[in-house]
Amino acid sequence: MRKNLFTILLIGLLLVPLVAGTGFAKTLKIGSMSPLTGPYAADGNDIKNGVLTAIDVINDQGGIPGYSKIELFPQDTACDPKQAVAAANKLINLEVVGVIGAYCSSSTIPASETLAEEDIPMITPASTNEKVTDRGLPYMFRMCGRDDDQAPTAVKFMMEALGAKSLFIVDDKTTYSQGLADGVEKSARKMGMKVLGRDHVNQGDKDFSAILTMAKRTNADVLYMSLQNHASGSLMAIQARRLGLKSTVVSQDAMYHPNFIKVAKDAAEGVYVTYGFTDKSTPEFRAYAQRFTKNYGEIGAYGTYAYDAALVLLNAIKKANSTDPKKIKKQIMKMNFQGASKFVKFRPNGDSGSDYVGYKIENGEYIVYWTPQKGILK
Amino acid sequence: MDYFIQQLINGLTLGGLYALIALGYTMVYGVIQLINFAHGEFFAAGGYMGVILLSFFAGLGYIDTHPFLCIGASILLTMAYCAFLAMGVERVAYKPLRRASRLAALVSALGMSIFLSNGLMLTQGVFDKAYPSELIQGGFEVGTVIVSYLQLVIMGLTILLLVGLNILVFKTRVGMAMRATAQDKIMSSLVAISSNRIIAMTFAIGAGLAACAGIMVGFYYGSVRYDMGFVPGIKAFAAAVLGGIGNITGAMLGGLIIGMVEIFGAAYISGQYKDVFAFIILISVLYFKPTGIMGENVDDTRV
Predict the structure, then answer these.
(1) Using CA atoms in the order B157, B161, B164, B170, what is the torsion angle rounded to 10 degrees?
(2) pLDDT tens digits for range A280-339
(3) What is d(CA A274, CA A163) in angstroms, rounded to the nearest whole number?
(4) Can you give the residue ranges of every domain in chain A?
(5) Neighboring chain A residues of B264 at a CB cutoff of 8 Å
């Protein structure tokens, strides 16, 4: 009997810190979804780190009234629809008040349906497929651009800046890459470019020699490379160079990543990509860049959008002084500020506008080469 | 016609790489009837060890002065490293199960594969590691057909290794001992052949070939990643089965066929179905000839 009493006392003592911990501190929980492992891990970790940087900034500004801290629950989607839905369910169980993510459109679309059942606001920093915001979900927002803007811009870029008259299109059959390639094919036909061929590869393929030989035979002015992942992109660029492909390689936002150049090296030189325009001279961008590089190293691609998305969510909660999704949405719609990536202002459907420009890879860097308004720069 | 020849060269390069990996599967199966699912990881480990050694040489500054010496040394050291790795794996994961059921060893192989692949991920990171492909640059043109020196190196090295292996297995005493162990472990041990040593050696040779393929793949595609062993592993396993598992010539042939079918399927039909073509060939061969292409003389020449 005495021994039992002792045990109970001991357990009681052990429980004290737990009870004390939960009783006084109120935590604001937010979630992030992005591929943290696998081939897309580079972009996925940028997104997570972008959100963490935003939380850091908000904390420095005094945090969110009524909460002692902001906690992020980063979820790994691995760019897999099933895992994305599982991650969304996990975030629902954790009772997060908002989610930043996901990266691949094919993850964002199913995950947002799950989050929508609980009316949890979701802001994607990177999914560009039209369907993300076209399904009429009330709490779905997007920081980056749309592919039905990117595709015509890309075609206009190829015609105006490169003087190209024909193209060969390759995609790797994801919601994003195939959707974008379809859009480019449609715009090209409409605007008078010749589509000399179109073929698909599989995600994770390493050998593109067959398809590149095919592209070489068509003698197209441009090889339009629509791949989900910059790692496959580097492989394709290297092999295109080796096979003596004379077409100019044009790609899209997924190739905007320092790792693309690091792996492809010389083969990346002279590759063009379309990606959202970020004014790197704004104080907002510089403040972000300083903080991000200090903690996480080199700035990738979509970390900047993730940072802005997290700022939007946290500031909306702060201003609404509530975590009620309706009130958060009202505040998000009122947003009107210069973010790190762009000037943030949302449209009724949840989009925040596209601003695609053409970048050229030169001496290992992405250089703004062409804008739809001004044409070729310098 | 030029198009066909260009694709043929693409196919031969890829097929040669598959053949090098397939040999490891087939040799191990020949000797202990185990499908070594960790074999793809030896290939990945080889790819990584190669880039580590090459950057080590680059750090010493030798790579600019003696590029080919450095590449050669890296290949030899990597092959040796993977041979020892494979012997270690065999000692830890398969030898204790030699008398257990074949299923136990198979599960152990799967576990080893996951362990090694995750080990690579944890030590080397999740990102692609760039290879110094610029060391073997250039090529020559015949008409519109471009043959890169790298493709020649890969094909040449593959042929060299295949010939070397054939001499080892069919012309030397060690090869004879290997063939004897494959035929009957008990009988061969009665004539003073240490089956444990022969089995370890088989693992070592198979892993050495895979390691060489790993470096070649690194050069050819420009990068390596921790999970690079999985897909080529499956394809090479298919190649080994296609050729008749346990048969060395069959594995070489199977590798070439799988590589060719993949490239020509992509070249003349569509790139998205290239894996489908490879496996259709596998299934149809197995349907009509379950022992594989070279499978009939199983008792005679298998290792």
Answers:
(1) -150
(2) 999 999 999 999 999 999 998 899 999 999 999 999 999 999 999 999 999 999 999 999
(3) 16
(4) 25-144+280-353, 148-278+357-376
(5) 210
Q: Do β-strands A222-226 and B139-142 pair in parallel, antiparallel, or remain unpaired? A: unpaired
Q: What is the pLDDT of residue A5?
A: 64
Give the pLDDT mean for B234-259. Answer: 92
How many domains does chain B contain in total?
1
Query: Of B303, B296, B10, B19, which is closest to residue B157 (Cα–Cα)?
Result: B19
Percent pLDDT > 70 in chain B is 97
Architecture per CATH, A25-144+280-353? 3-Layer(aba) Sandwich (3.40)
| CATH code at position B241 | 1.10.3470
Q: Which domain holds residue B293?
A: 2-301
Please classify residue A203 by burial: count the beta carbons closer than 10 Å to its beta carbon, then call 0-12 exposed, 13-18 middle and 19+ buried: middle
CB A37 to CB B146 under 8 A?
no
In CATH, the architecture of A148-278+357-376 is: 3-Layer(aba) Sandwich (3.40)
Q: What is the pLDDT of residues B100-112, one digit of tens each?
A: 888 999 999 999 9
A210 closest CB neighbour out of B7, B134, B148: B7
Same fold, A25-144+280-353 and A148-278+357-376: yes
Distances (CA, A) of B293 to B182, B255, B289: 20, 12, 7
Task: Please report residues of B whose CB lies closer than 8 A to that of A201.
Answer: 271-272
Q: Say if residue B268's pLDDT is above 80.
A: yes
B48 CA to chain A: closest CA distance, Å? 15
* A342 secondary structure, DSSP code: S
- Is A186 exposed, middle or buried (CB count within 10 Å of its CB: 0-12, 13-18, 19+)? middle
State how far the Cα of A154 lies from the Cα of A184, in Å rounded to an integer.
Answer: 7
pLDDT of residue A21: 46
Contact between chains at B262 and A267 (C-beta distance less than 8 A): no
Helix, coil or strand: residue B146:
strand
Cβ-based interface (< 8 Å): residues of B facing A: 3, 6-7, 10-11, 13-14, 126-128, 130, 133-134, 139, 141, 146, 148, 150, 217, 221-223, 225, 227-228, 231, 262-267, 270-272, 274-275
Strand partners, A224: A169, A250
Interface predicted TM-score (ipTM) of this complex, two decimals: 0.86
